């Protein structure tokens, strides 16, 4: 395991679920953290906890990754000691609805495409040039099993995660010859707020998603993300698929 103490780690979607668990894992590894999401109160609460537990150095960014000018301005205006991002965890994402394509809500599609694909691209475009210029860096994209298999009624969400997979591979190709690594961490079912968001707060429908199997925890995914980030520089875990044992 390579020490990553004092490296600057930017995590998008850090206000809950996998992003928050990654923040905790990297805080424990004594990195500096830039935590981004729209819900500032949730970021503040997490930052307070991590400060108390690990005395972490944390910079908060209230950010909607769909808003390109906001993303560019926020990342350009990071204070000097925070601007050199060493590790980017592109985690912000969501699913909306579980419907047949010809019955789906177009607004839901826009939200998924704008967040999962365009948001990830905007953040990546703003951060990676600095990594290339400094000759070090690691981009870790949170993809999904949905980028490998299209499940019934998953049409557009699966399409966005297939795009994330292709973008991760494309970025890796583009960065060949530089020391900057690209990893894609692709989980199966993880119990987070994801299902509640998917069903617009319908807790009963969200709960049913996990019936019949033991889902992954956000911490299971964060363990893998941290593992990727702490390999020696010549080792790139380019794609990791992690599933609950009883998920096909
Ligand atoms: P959560 O709903 O718990 O977390 C999603 C995070 O994304 C929140 O912090 C949310 O913050 C943030 N986010 C959403 N939209 C935006 C936006 N426009 N701008 C900035 N941040 C945003 O779900 P998970 O932790 O489960 O999801 C994290 C990632 O993992 C997603 O990319 C998801 O697709 C992927 N994934 C999840 C799986 C699961 O079963 N849970 C399985 C496979 C992959 P806020 O609302 O404060 O902005």
TrEMBL record:
Family matches, as Gene3D superfamilies: NAD(P)-binding Rossmann-like Domain
Keywords, ordered alphabetically: Oxidoreductase
Pfam families documented for this protein: adh_short
InterPro entries given in the database record: NAD(P)-bd_dom_sf, SDR_fam
Statement: the UniProt record of this protein carries the keyword Transmembrane helix: no
KW Hydrolase (keyword) present: no
UniProt similarity note: Belongs to the short-chain dehydrogenases/reductases (SDR) family.
Protein name, per record: SDR family oxidoreductase
Organism: Trichocoleus desertorum GB2-A4
